[in-house]
Amino acid sequence: MESTVLLKKTRKTVLLLLFLGWAIGNLDRYLINYAVVDIANDLALTATQTGVVLSSFFLGYAIMQMPGGLLADKYGAKKILLTAVIIWSIFTGLTAVAWSFSALIVIRFLFGIGEGGFQPAASKIIATIFPKNERSRAMSLLLASAAIMAMLVPLISAVLLGLIGWRLLFVITGLIGAVIAFLYWRYIQVPDTTVEAARGLSVTGENKGILKKIITMPFMWSLLVSYFTIYAVNWGLSSWMPSYLTNERGLDLLSIGYLQLIPGVLMLSGMLIFGIVIDKLTLQQNKVIGAVFAVGIAGFLFLMFHSNSIGMFIFYQCIVTILMTYITLLLPSFVLKTIPQDITATAMGMANTGGQLAGFITPAAMGFMVDFFNGSYNAAFWLLIIFAMICIFALLSIKSNLKEERVSNV
């Protein structure tokens, strides 16, 4: 009874802290997309090298997804959260001292390693302290922090990059992360749902069995591909949007910042609304809606990149953002509502590996295509359209009887 009362009292506090932590993590991720314009000038980077810099974080982040999830299930989510924030704060700050292309890649890669355990551990906490019919809403609030950063970072970058420079800006971001780490250490309280606490079994043997069971589930592979394709569109757009609008549409960073407020507001609104919608519908119904939305993403991406005016470009981008927001919120809901709490982090780690591999591959691939086609973005944009089309089939391949995909507690 006491633990239940404690859970009710601390639930909102824990979710708020997760929100703040994920906001700072996304602040850095979006910030690099704007700072890289100045970084590329300072370090004399080509488009291909710029793409590699943007991708290096995601390689480390993707590599750490499964280990981060396993560690959270084994040792507890709070420990992994705290470790993740401390490490990413250190390497965010160290971004400021990057003196070469190689140094920047190493620092951003290690930053990704540090942050890799955050989302699996945060997902485990949500699955632990929230009932099933509230988990999508809780996740929507967590992910809303990313939407807020997507909206604010263009303006923050436009003002502060010119005022204090990219190096000092990364130092400040790292210091904010250190404050978040202290708050996590002091205030996050969650029940112990590690494998040994929940089952009283040998952790090593049990984790091996869990991992084998999860990676042999067709359900999980469908999720992984769905994550990969939708995040390929997401990170492809966000990483190259500033460079594209600057080089191809002739906009300055401040103008880009104001224009990107519009899809940012819609993303935030979608996060808050879609969390409620997804909780009210079955996962089978949500799956069909997600597939239809993926069709829309492919179509509106085509219209977006062939628009003749900035106004129509932003209009189509807004539609793509709304449709993409629904899918990115739906995907973790499959894990939160079908996987037992004591192994949620491991399952989320596997699914999210797809999304972060997309973050590693897509920016670098787009940079290579821009260089290969002498500065043209056409091939790079077609790559995003193809990913959206693959996402349609990945979502539809998720088994209709989702109850059959539950991992047994026995």
Automatic annotation (TrEMBL):
Predominant subcellular localization, coarse grouping: membrane
GO terms for MF: transmembrane transporter activity
CDD domains in alphabetical order: MFS_ExuT_GudP_like (cd17319)
Membrane topology value: Multi-pass membrane protein
Transmembrane annotation, as ranges: 43-63, 75-91, 97-118, 139-160, 166-185, 218-237, 257-276, 288-307, 313-336, 357-373, 379-398
Domain Major facilitator superfamily (MFS) profile: 14-406
Superkingdom: Bacteria
CC annotations in GO: plasma membrane
Location within or outside the cell: Cell membrane
Keyword entries, A-Z: Membrane, Transmembrane, Transmembrane helix, Transport
UniProt xrefs under PANTHER family: FI19708P1-RELATED, SOLUTE CARRIER FAMILY 17
Descriptive protein name: MFS transporter
Organism ancestry: Bacteria, Bacillati, Bacillota, Bacilli, Bacillales
